[in-house]
Amino acid sequence: MVIHQTYLLLLFMLVPLTVSAQPSLPDLPEPVSNNAVAAVHTSQSLYLLSFMGLGSGKTFKDIHNKVWSLQPGDSHWQARQPVPSSLPLKGRLAGIAVGIKNKAYIFGGYTVAEDHSEITSPDNFVYDVLSDRYQDIATTPVPVDDTVALVYRQRYVYLVSGWHNDGNVRLVQLYDAHNNQWQQATPFPGVPVFGHAGGMVNNRMMICDGVGVQTGPGQRRRFIPEAACYSGTVDPERPDKIAWQAVPHPTGKARYRMAAAAIPSPRAGIVFVGGSHTPYNYNGMGYDNNPSTPDKGLWYYNFNRQRWQTGTVNTATMDHRGLPRLDKNTLVIIGGMRNQQVVSAKVNMISTSILSP
Known about the structure:
Layout (H helix, E strand, L loop, with lengths): L1 H13 L1 E4 L1 E2 L13 E6 L4 E9 L8 E8 L7 E3 L15 E5 L2 E5 L2 E3 L5 E3 L3 E5 L4 E4 L11 E5 L3 E5 L2 E2 L2 E2 L3 E5 L4 E5 L11 E5 L2 E5 L2 E4 L7 E4 L3 E7 L2 E10 L11 E5 L5 E5 L21 E8 L4 E11 L7 E3 L2 E5 L2 E2 L3 E2 L3 E5 L6
C-alpha cells in the first residue's frame, strides 16, 4: 500500500495543471442546482439543455421541473415546456440527461415531499428540442436517481449504480434507444454508490467515487464517501458485457456529485470537475450536519497512457449532474452550488486544450 500511494504522488508532481474556467455564456434565467444537463446536436444548431433541479431557496418547495435551452451565440436562455411527471409532485432532483443524435433522453430522479419523504421517479422521456415535445420511453427495470448515464454508439445508454428508494443498487441497466428496450449489463464491481460521476469514450468507461451506505445491527445507516475508480470495457459484440477493472484513485479522497465528461481522441479520456469531499443532503448541508463546501479540483484520466493528470479550475462548484461538451476542447458547467451552498445561475466554459494527449 505504501508503494501504491507513492506512485500516485509522483504522478501529481509530474503533471499538475490549471484549467481556465471563465463565464463566457449567458447566465441561466434563475439559479438552479442538481439539474440534469445535456448537449444535443440538431439540424439547426447545437443546444445546451437544463432539466429540472433545485432553486435558490433550497427547500422542498424549490424543487422544480423547469427546462431551459441555449443555442451558443444567443444572448439568453429560452424557457421550454416543463418535464412531465407521473408522480403527484412534479419537480425532481438528481435526474440525468444525455444527448443521442438530435434528441435528449431524461432518466429518473427523485421527488421530495414536505415531510422529507423521497420517491425515486419511474419516469423516462425522450425530448425533441425543435418541437419542444416529450415522449414516454420504457421504464427502467429498477428506477434510479443520482446515477451515471453513459452513451455508447449513439444508441445505448448505461445507467451505472445509483439510488433506488431505500438504498443503492449495483446494477448496470442498459437502454437501447433504437428498440426502446432495457436489459441488464454486467453489474458494477465496486461498492454500490450514489452521487458518483463518470464518462465514456468509444467502448471504455470510467466511474469514480460517490457515496456508499453503511448499516449495522441497531445502528442508523451512515453515508460513507467511497474513494474508488473503475474502468469498464464494453465487448463490441455484446453491449451488455463489460469487463471491469479497478483503477488507482487519483487522490485517495472521494468527491461527491462531481461533473464529468468524455474527451474524444486523440486524448481519449475522462475529465472530472468540482464536487464536494463531504456528502450532503439536497440543500448542501452535510449528512454530518456540517455545511458542505465545493472543490476546485480537476482530474483527467488518459485511457491511452493509463494515468491521471490533476489540477484545478478557477471556480469551486458542486452538485452537478453532467458536464456537456460545447466542442472538442470546451466543456460547460451549468448552474450548481458555489461557496456557502449558494445555488448559482452561472454558466462557465472550461477549456481542455491544456490536457496532455
